[in-house]
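Protein modeling request. Please complete all fields; requests missing the sequence field cannot be processed.
Requester role: graduate student
Desired output: 3D structure, token encoding
Chains: 1
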Amino acid sequence: MTMMNKEMTIGQYLDKIIPEPWCELHFRTDYELLIAIVLSAQTTDKRVNQVTEVLFSTYPDLESLGNADVSSIESILKSLGSFRKKAIYVQSIARLLCEKYEGKVPTDREILESFPGVGRKTVSVFLSEFYDIPAFAVDTHVERVSKRLGLASSSDNVLLVEEKLKRKFRREEWARRHKQFVLFGRYYCKSVKPSCEGCELRGICKEK
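Delivered output (208 residues):
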């Protein structure tokens, strides 16, 4: 199978089993999404959604969130890993948005990556989900699926995986493929006990 045919096969199968991919984080505003992504590091979206429901109802706007006592934010985030560090990130992001950006999350990648707790993956997820700006974020699921399917080498770091995926799929597909890879990795091609039976990509999987 040629590389182009492999990419077409993968895309067609993902379109078949995940025709309408979605972001599993709950949010209403740009800053809620950004903060939810920051909180999602090293934890599940389900747990983040439980936490943000309380967080954003307790502090319903950026001003109240930025002025909140860090210990109060910590108490809400305590079920998350690194909750003390994340509480500082949340408060700092809220203050930054209020003081420097009139309460609106900027779209400039360099500016966003300067925010506390915000890295390349966070920015990519945010820009593609909220502003529909083409990006291909690589999290643990995307990395695992890409390497299993031979779209990246086992030794590739996340930046190289991202570069390879961007070359293999059309720019207008990046956001969609990212979400499909995440959901495929989360519910089908799992880290432990993947659902290989009946998977139409077994023929090209490196770990079959």
